[in-house]
Write a structure and sequence with these properties.
The complex is a heterodimer of chains A (289) and B (301). Chain A is mainly α and 289 residues long. Chain A has twelve helices and no strands. Chain A folds into two domains: 57 residues, no CATH class; 210 residues, MetI-like (MetI-like fold, Orthogonal Bundle), CATH 1.10.3720.10. The chains are: A mainly alpha (289), B mainly alpha (301).
């Protein structure tokens, strides 16, 4: 497609031989639009990369607050990160909350996805709507409303409240890919397995689940990331429990001591971008976003 | 015989129902107790009062709403109203910018394939490479009078003092939100543009439509669904954002989430917070209605 377009672009620019001698307005518009689109895309790529790449650069700078004046390269910021016990503890805590929340969301969400995709029942339409609400509901509303709920039922803020909040927040990221995958699932595969003598359980474990498992895995990753990066929900329902985002927020808003912030951000950028590069290369990630 | 058959069917139906209850039950329970019930409480508490021992006193009064809208200097002269309209404007500007930036890139992506496609996709998903708080933080050292942008400009002979637009404030908030939410818009637009049969575009070209006519009459209408969904997924979170103005407005103005959070944090005024957050639920409900009308669940995976 790209090559034929390139050729088309050229021929449109010069005018097709033998047809007319003049370059039509539309052809000029086409060529300008094509080049304009590339130029704009390159500009946007610069805009998107600039902030994160300067964070990576800052993480190696003597003077970690600003790039100028340049005072030399150092690993001191990384040392201050790895000696910052409370930040590391908060990162581990957030990873733990994210793992538990994403697991709960997966255990609840996969069967719910099957029920929505494969069963007719009363209230199914409403349920289909309800499933996307955690995705659309602003974090502050989920945070305040759960704070009130937990207050009324007497659950004190902390780990349990955060896991409850994050597991329902992550639910759509599991249910939606599962429903989408089951919608295009060829049920003849299951019928075939059954005709060949497989029972219901082995059809599920040997045929259905392996086929939809990439969708579940992608959903798990998104649910995990959403929990890990959440600030406002954990701010309201986390109580005194530490979280990486709360720690980072405190560093930026209450103190200027952000030396550990840039290396932490750099490590997160490296881990996530590597994962994403692998995902784009090996799978059509857009199917599951 | 037929009664036995009926009985068997009934058992099967009951078995089917029990199976369905096991499958859907936990998820439905989760959504009811952690989404619907809390929202109902939110509405109730917005009409209630909070005692000095921070307990909810169930009553019916509109004093929380009065506090939101009636200020000392008159109706609608309150920090809440100011922040609400400012937040609406910031969210609208962010949505507009993401559309303008993401549309051409999404269109370009549909026309690329193979290696080129993967490279461009990887390059434009970069804000996804990290977590939201880092995305916003990454603009912190770019803005400000000593920020990278102003320092770079001051190094040129064109500028003699730091430019106001690159100070912390409105531009910093809108630009960082645009950066942070760009991938949402891009991906929803891409998936709707990708669904357009390229043959339709070629056919319109063969029938003599100009490039502009094709864009206006074919591409935009056929991708309207993705456009609307993308707008919703940018507008709603931008409206309720807390971290962004905290980091990048630096006290110049407050957005709605900051007003509510401050009241709850400092005064434990969850009744005031509840009443205020209902005004964030209204846009959410509108967004929900739009998404339900335009998008099927199967297409949202």
């Amino acid at each position: 497609m790209a090559d034929s377009e390139g050729h088309g672009r050229l021929s449109r620019l010069v005018g097709e031989p033998g047809l007319t001698g003049t370059v039509s307005v539309d052809r000029v518009v086409s060529a300008v639009a094509d080049y304009g689109m590339w130029a704009l895309t390159l500009g946007i790529i610069v805009f998107l990369w600039l902030p994160l790449s300067q964070i990576v650069a800052l993480s190696f700078m003597e003077n970690s607050a600003v790039l100028f004046p340049f005072e030399g390269v150092t690993l001191d910021n990384y040392v201050s990160l790895f000696t910052n016990e409370s930040l590391l503890l908060a990162a581990r805590q957030s990873a733990f909350v994210a793992t538990v929340s994403a697991l709960v969301a997966t255990l609840i969400g996969v069967p719910l996805g099957f029920a929505i995709a494969r069963h007719e029942f009363r209230g199914r339409g409403m349920l289909r709507g309800l499933v996307i609400v955690p995705l659309l509901m602003p974090g502050i509303i989920m945070g305040i409303s759960l704070l009130i709920l937990f207050r009324v039922v007497g659950l004190s803020p902390g780990f349990l409240g955060t896991v409850l909040a994050h597991s329902v927040y992550g639910l759509p990221f599991i249910v939606l890919p599962v429903v989408a995958r089951l919608a295009v699932f060829d049920r003849k595969l299951e019928e075939g397995a059954r005709d060949l003598g497989a029972d219901g359980r082995s059809v599920l474990t040997d045929v259905t689940l392996p086929i939809i498992s990439p969708a579940i895995a992608a959903g798990f990753v998104f649910a995990w990331l959403r929990s890990f990066e959440d600030f406002i929900r954990v701010f309201f329902v986390g109580g005194t429990m530490d979280a990486l985002t709360k720690e980072m927020y405190g560093m930026v808003v209450y103190s200027q001591g952000t030396a550990a912030m840039d290396p932490m951000a750099t490590i997160i950028v490296l881990v996530v971008s590597t994962a994403l590069a692998v995902a784009i290369n090996f799978r059509d990630i857009l199917e599951y976003v | 015989m037929s009664t036995i058959q009926d009985l068997g069917d009934a058992f099967e139906r009951r078995g089917e129902r029990a199976k369905l209850a096991i499958m859907a039950g936990p998820g439905v329970g989760w959504l009811l107790t952690l989404i619907l019930v809390p929202t109902a409480f939110l509405v109730m508490v917005s009409f209630a009062e909070v005692s000095s021992s921070y307990d909810v006193v169930w009553s019916f009064s509109v004093s929380n709403y009065r506090e939101l809208f009636v200020g000392e200097s008159g109706l609608f002269q309150t920090p809440f109203v100011d922040s609400f309209f400012l937040s609406l404007r910031i969210a609208a500007a962010t949505t507009f910018l993401t559309v303008v930036l993401a549309y051409p890139v999404a269109y370009l992506l549909t026309r690329l394939s193979g290696r080129r496609f993967k490279i461009v996709l990887f390059a434009v998903l970069v804000p996804f490479f990290t977590i939201f708080i880092v995305r916003i933080y990454s603009w912190l050292s770019l803005f400000g009078s000593q920020g990278l942008i102003n320092s770079a400009l001051l190094a040129t002979p064109l500028v003699s003092e730091p430019l106001g637009i690159f100070e912390y404030g409105l531009a910093a908030v809108v630009i960082s939100l645009t950066h942070a939410f760009f991938p949402y818009m891009l991906l929803t637009l891409y998936s709707s543009l990708e669904g357009i049969d390229y043959g339709v575009i070629e056919a319109s070209r063969d029938l003599g439509a100009t490039r502009i006519e094709i864009a206006k009459d074919v591409v935009v209408p056929l991708s309207a669904q993705g456009l609307i969904t993308g707008c919703v997924f940018v507008f709603v979170p931008a409206l309720g954002t807390f971290i962004t103005p905290q980091f990048l407005a630096r006290g110049k103005f407050t957005m709605i989430a900051e007003v509510l959070t401050a009241r709850i944090n400092e005064l434990y005024a969850i009744n005031y917070g509840a009443a205020g957050s209902l005004f964030l639920i209204i846009p959410t409900l509108i967004a929900f209605a739009i998404v339900m009308r335009t998008t099927s669940l199967e297409a949202m995976g």
